[in-house]
């Protein structure tokens, strides 16, 4: 017979949660709101939302595979910290930048002078804060390559979250999805696990989460969340794909969401790109749904 007295003792001490807390239930009201937004989009959309305290969720094409674009840098960060945890790298280990590592696109390390001194912590910070492509490819190599990162994703039960670029055997799928691939449900779960201290180690997860809370690109989903509320996030953008994963430490309960798009008709690099507007609107709807009494209104302004 179950020891109910011991169960109640642990429950009162807060060492376990009531059984009901582990159940998940679709948030139909929020699903309806987000389905309407997704239905009006000219392209393919996937959305996953989960309120961590209540387990309420929304899943719209949540298990469909989408290109990650720069969101692949979250798995790369995990791979880097796997090496640090094992002692094969040190967080403040000195490195030397070489022009041969330069890669264009987003980021600032490409503008460093050849032979400039840096360190692993800087590579990690630039990758997550400025989505730096040069440091990201460097980190991918330091992590043991895309194949090793994929092995780690597999170990944690992620079946579709993979690095494709510069990864042996994945050239054909790279042509379809680019640098990386994931599903809205999987990427949201990965970020949730980092927040809960369940990836690599509690200490490694803590450091990764801190790095994810210092993003420069805050004019999309974060513009619809009060600036005094902490949020970890990562954006990913290429011509036909604009996506973002966010975990919000909201006053009435943390929540995570991932909005993914692909085959987008609007491929302009503009502030009013349809996918960017969609991500903003999704973020606003989720915030107002979970925090209806916040009385906060976004003062979103595009500074040019």
UniProtKB/TrEMBL annotation:
Reactions accelerated catalytically: a beta-lactam + H2O = a substituted beta-amino acid
Record has Signal as a keyword: yes
UniProt keyword annotation of Signal present: yes
Signal peptide: 1-21
Domain Beta-lactamase class A catalytic: 46-261
One Gene Ontology MF term: hydrolase activity
Pfam families from the UniProt entry: Beta-lactamase2 (PF13354)
Keywords: Hydrolase, Signal
Name the record gives this protein: Serine hydrolase
């Amino acid at each position: 017979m179950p020891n109910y007295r011991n169960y109640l003792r642990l429950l009162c001490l807060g060492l376990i949660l009531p059984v009901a807390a582990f159940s998940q239930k679709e948030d139909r009201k929020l699903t309806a709101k987000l389905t309407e937004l997704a239905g009006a989009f000219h392209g393919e959309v996937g959305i996953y939302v989960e309120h961590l305290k209540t387990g309420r969720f929304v899943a719209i094409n949540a298990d469909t595979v989408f290109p990650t674009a720069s969101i692949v840098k979250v798995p790369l960060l995990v791979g880097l910290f796997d090496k640090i945890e094992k002692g094969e790298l040190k967080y403040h280990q000195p490195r030397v930048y070489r022009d041969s590592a330069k890669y264009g696109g987003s980021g600032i390390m490409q503008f460093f002078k050849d032979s400039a001194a840096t360190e692993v912590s800087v590579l990690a910070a630039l990758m997550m804060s400025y989505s730096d492509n040069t440091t990201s490819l460097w980190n991918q190599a330091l992590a043991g390559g895309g194949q090793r990162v994929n092995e780690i994703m597999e170990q944690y039960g992620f079946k579709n979250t993979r690095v494709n670029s510069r990864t042996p055997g994945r050239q054909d799928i790279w042509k379809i999805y680019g640098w990386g691939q994931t599903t809205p449900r999987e990427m949201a779960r990965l970020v949730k696990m980092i927040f809960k201290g369940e990836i690599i180690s509690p200490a490694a997860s803590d450091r990764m989460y801190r790095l994810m809370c210092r993003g420069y690109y805050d004019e999309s989903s974060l513009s619809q969340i009060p600036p005094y509320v902490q949020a970890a996030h990562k954006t990913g953008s290429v011509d036909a794909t604009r996506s973002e994963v966010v975990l919000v430490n909201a006053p009435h309960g943390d929540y995570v969401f991932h909005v993914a798009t692909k085959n987008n008709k609007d491929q302009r690099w503009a502030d009013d790109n349809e996918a960017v507007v969609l991500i903003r609107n999704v973020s606003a709807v989720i915030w107002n749904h979970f925090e209806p009494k916040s009385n906060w209104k976004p003062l979103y302004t595009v500074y040019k």
